[in-house]
Design brief:
The complex is a heterodimer of chains A (445) and B (175).
Chain A: H1 3-19, H2 26-35, E1 46-48, E2 58-59, E3 88-92, E4 95-99, E5 110-111, E6 121-127, E7 133-140, E8 149-156, E9 167-170, E10 187-188, E11 194-199, E12 202-207, E13 213-216, E14 223-226, E15 232-236, E16 250-256, E17 262-275, E18 281-286, E19 291-299, E20 306-310, E21 321-322, E22 328-334, E23 342-348, E24 354-357, E25 361-363, E26 367-377, E27 383-392, E28 402-409, E29 417-422
Antiparallel strand pairs in A: 1-17, 2-13, 3-4, 4-5, 6-7, 7-8, 8-9, 10-11, 11-12, 12-13, 14-15, 15-16, 16-17, 17-18, 18-19, 19-20, 21-22, 22-23, 23-24, 25-26, 26-27, 27-28, 28-29
Chain B: H1 15-36, H2 39-55, H3 57-60, H4 66-79, H5 81-94, H6 110-117, H7 121-131, H8 137-144, H9 148-166
Classes of the chains: A mainly beta (445), B mainly alpha (175).
Chain lengths: 445, 175
């Protein structure tokens, strides 16, 4: 097809569709003229309807994109309290591995045998809230200079660790922002059906039951978190076009995957956020002055915004993560003004008091100190799961860098267990900072 | 899109503006949409352009082609990223409570318009005016307030870039 033919057809299509637009009343123009161009204030809870793709939501797998189907009043999703600690999933050199954290045993990690994994590059595994499904990002057909095609894979995993038939959702056109890990890294919704991820600067949403994909464009979020018990996704931050760009906080957008509606959460401005396990409260890092030191709380309706603690800043990690028990909020903090060494710390939600967890140590006479890339919770809320790198006291060591997965009891961090040691783990310095992977699932036998 | 009822105190002081607005609104939205890719933003920008026309209607209505003037304003508004983001926020607010638009603007060949949006601004504007509105070089020059030779240059460069980006055969340019 010639360019002119393509262009004429494309232009005619837009022309025809535009001709069908019924204009608003000219009175609207008159009113706006009288009112001037003052921006509409969006204080408090404001319900916004973007049904019908008014802000460019695209249905990737629908050949004739139509208005977003409103599915009616969503059924509430169950609130899952603290669970039992099951399989831990992590990635290593392009494969997914499972292991269990059990005292008294030294069971090695096992590679997850999933159709298609042999020729692909898999990473960022994350368990569904009900513990039955594992999602991970897959790249295929890549080269040294191109990451390849992106897919989201979900696979049922039995309590014995056996993988069932995978479901593969192509993510056509997916690209991570420049400088970040290229894998699509998802975060599960409370219904264990929808997932959200960030690619190309857009928020991508995928229905793992139907394979439908949606995109909310141009948000470049720093953080995403699903509100427990609902179909709502909170979106915050603007990470800029690439890793070198300045990150800024933004109003928090709450998007409903079932109705397509968005709302802005009060006057909150944030770039990291985490919901309480009962979905009633949002903890966020940010604030009006773009201050990274404040950890604040706000009710789900956007009201009662208050300071919880001052927590410093980080250049790794997934931001604050609320514990499954609801009592503590975990975060990472840089030790100094620069560098990569972080501590994990716990903030008591009741009073804002803080407990700093010194770098976990392993080894005998020669000790290794572990510094977190990212830290998340076990399902029962007792243990922190570190994806970390180490430094060693061994004066003869020529290679002082190692990475590992560690289980660190929240109330007894000296009882750290090194679960796996190796390279190329999820949560390295190039990871997506907005995706807190739920690496620890709820099921195992 | 639902027609918003006029306020009780609105009297059509400018019936000619009303008919002009009714005739041109959809076309301006379509033109801006291909340049910015966002339906809500396109509507917001189009309405802003018509607000300016409304305020100056006594003058604009006397132009040879008021529609060209409105398009120039809308296109200029669309080129400012900062303004676009501000309008995006306002657009979301204005859509509050409104039911879903009935007309979907996203074309089936959105890849073409995505490629257009990646062109330098003036090239994209000339291509959009050429193929969405089927305007001649002279008319495009009038809308953008630039020389006709300049328009021909932008169209030539824009078409060449699109042919490469879309792997399409480039025919000899039409007059």
């Amino acid at each position: 097809m010639s360019l002119d033919q393509m262009a004429r057809e494309a232009g005619a299509e837009v022309r025809d569709r535009a001709a069908a637009i019924a204009p608003p009343s000219a009175g609207l123009i008159a009113r706006r003229s009288r009112r001037g161009r003052a921006a509409t204030a969006m204080a408090g809870f404001v319900g916004l309807a973007i049904a019908g793709l008014g802000v460019g939501v695209a249905l990737e797998d629908d050949p004739a994109p139509t208005a977003l189907e409103v599915t009616g009043d969503p059924e509430p999703t169950p609130l899952l309290g603290p669970g039992r600690n099951g399989w831990i999933a992590f990635d290593h050199d392009g494969d997914i591995y499972l292991l269990r954290s059990r005292r008294g045993t030294s069971e090695p990690a096992r590679r997850l045998e999933v159709e298609g994994s042999g020729s692909s590059d898999d990473a960022c595994p994350t368990w569904s809230p009900d513990g039955t499904l594992l999602a991970f990002g897959r790249l295929t057909g890549g080269s040294d200079t191109e990451p390849g095609d992106a897919e989201l894979v979900t696979v049922p995993v039995e309590p014995d660790g056996a993988a069932g038939t995978p479901n593969v959702i192509p993510l056509k056109g997916f690209r991570a922002l420049s400088g970040f890990d290229p894998h699509p890294c998802a975060i599960w919704a409370p219904d264990s059906r929808w997932v959200a991820l960030s690619g190309n600067g857009d928020v991508w949403l995928a229905d793992t039951d139907t394979g439908a994909v949606r995109r909310l464009p141009d948000l470049r979020p720093v953080d995403l978190d699903w509100r427990p018990g609902t179909h709502e996704l909170a979106i915050a931050g603007d990470i800029g076009p690439d890793r070198s760009a300045e990150t800024s906080n933004t109003p928090v957008t709450v998007y409903s995957v079932s109705t397509g509606e968005t709302r802005q959460l009060g006057s909150v401005r944030a770039y990291y956020l985490t919901w309480s396990p009962d979905g009633s409260t949002l903890a966020y890092q940010g604030g009006e002055d773009d201050n990274p030191d404040e950890l604040r709380l706000v009710d789900a309706d956007g009201g009662n915004d208050r300071l919880l603690a001052r927590i410093g800043s980080a250049n790794h990690g997934v931001g604050p993560v609320w514990s499954p028990t609801g009592e503590l909020i975990l975060y990472q903090r840089l030790l100094g003004p620069s560098g990569e060494r972080h501590h994990a710390a716990l903030v008591d939600v009741a009073d804002g008091t803080e407990t700093v967890i010194d770098a976990p140590q392993t080894g005998g006479s020669i000790r290794s100190s572990w510094w977190p890339y990212s830290v998340t919770w076990s399902p029962d809320g007792t243990t922190l799961l570190y994806s970390a790198w180490s430094t060693t006291t061994d004066p003869s060591a020529t290679d002082t860098s190692s990475t590992g997965v560690l289980a660190v009891p929240a109330d007894a961090p000296t009882n750290t267990r090194l679960l796996h040691e190796g390279s190329s783990l999820t949560g390295n310095v190039y990871d997506h900072v907005w995706v807190p992977p739920q690496m620890w699932g709820r099921r195992s036998n | 899109m639902d027609v918003v009822a006029a306020p009780a105190d609105y009297a059509p002081a400018n019936p000619s503006f009303e008919s002009f607005f009714a005739a041109e609104y959809g076309r301006v939205v379509g033109l801006v949409f291909v340049l910015c890719g966002r339906r809500a933003v396109a509507e917001e920008l189009a309405q802003d352009a018509f607000v300016q026309a409304y305020r100056r209607w006594s003058v604009v209505s006397g132009y040879d082609d008021p529609s060209a003037w409105v398009r120039r304003v809308a296109i200029n508004l669309a080129t400012s990223t900062l303004r676009r983001r501000t309008r995006e926020a306002r657009a979301l607010a204005r859509l509050a409570g409104r039911p879903a638009p009935q007309v979907e603007l996203t074309p089936t060949n959105d890849a073409f318009w995505e490629a257009v949006r990646r062109l330098p601004k003036r090239q994209a504007q000339c291509v959009a005016l050429r193929y969405v509105e089927d305007r001649s070089v002279a008319e495009i020059a009038a809308v953008l307030d630039i020389a006709e030779a300049t328009v021909r240059g932008y169209l030539h460069e824009g078409r060449a870039a699109l042919a490469i980006a879309l792997d399409a055969h480039l025919e000899e340019e039409e007059p």
